[in-house]
């Protein structure tokens, strides 16, 4: 189903967000990439970008990352930690850690190795529960715009 077709659904509020969450959960991120790119994209980078985007859609504005945090996460700094923190209430046993020699990290999540195509991604070790961000479809949901 094309993303633009979601605007035509009867119960459209939150439909696209739920579709994207499902794609992330099923690890089918290639469905979000422009087909004209073919296979000319990094699946890990798309997955990381998707995680950042989903962090930005959390129900409470205070739980959403600041733009400076978004920039840092897209540059490869702190995404695993932020992702783990945002999902710790849903699945406390979930671990995003990958074996690394990173002495800076004191959490179970490790910073990504930026060395190339063999780097690991926290995306492939996680799943999102269907009730994550359970208020995302709430008719009284807070709007994304406005000051924090």
Automatic annotation (TrEMBL):
Q: Which Gene3D superfamilies match?
A: Transferase(Phosphotransferase) domain 1
Q: Which SUPFAM superfamilies match?
A: Protein kinase-like (PK-like)
Q: Which key words tag this protein in UniProt?
A: ATP-binding, Kinase, Nucleotide-binding, Receptor, Transferase
GO MF term list: ATP binding; kinase activity
Superkingdom of origin: Eukaryota
Q: Which InterPro entries does the entry link to?
A: CR_Ser/Thr_kinase, Kinase-like_dom_sf
Record region (Disordered)? 83-148
Q: Which residues cross the membrane?
A: none
Name of the protein in question: LRR RECEPTOR-LIKE SERINE/THREONINE-PROTEIN KINASE-RELATED
């Amino acid at each position: 189903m094309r993303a633009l077709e979601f605007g035509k659904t009867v119960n459209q509020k939150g439909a696209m967000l739920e579709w994207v969450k499902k794609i992330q959960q099923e690890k089918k991120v290639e469905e979000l990439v422009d087909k004209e790119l073919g296979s000319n994209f990094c699946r890990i980078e798309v997955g990381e970008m998707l995680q950042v985007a989903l962090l930005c859609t959390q129900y409470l504005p205070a739980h959403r990352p600041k733009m400076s945090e978004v920039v840092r996460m897209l540059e490869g700094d702190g995404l695993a930690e932020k992702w783990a923190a945002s999902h710790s209430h849903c699945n406390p046993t979930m671990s995003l850690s990958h074996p690394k020699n990173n002495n800076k990290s004191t959490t179970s999540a490790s910073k990504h190795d930026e060395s190339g195509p063999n780097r690991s991604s926290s995306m492939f070790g996680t799943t999102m529960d269907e009730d994550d961000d359970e208020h995302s479809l709430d008719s009284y949901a807070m709007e994304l715009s406005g000051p924090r």
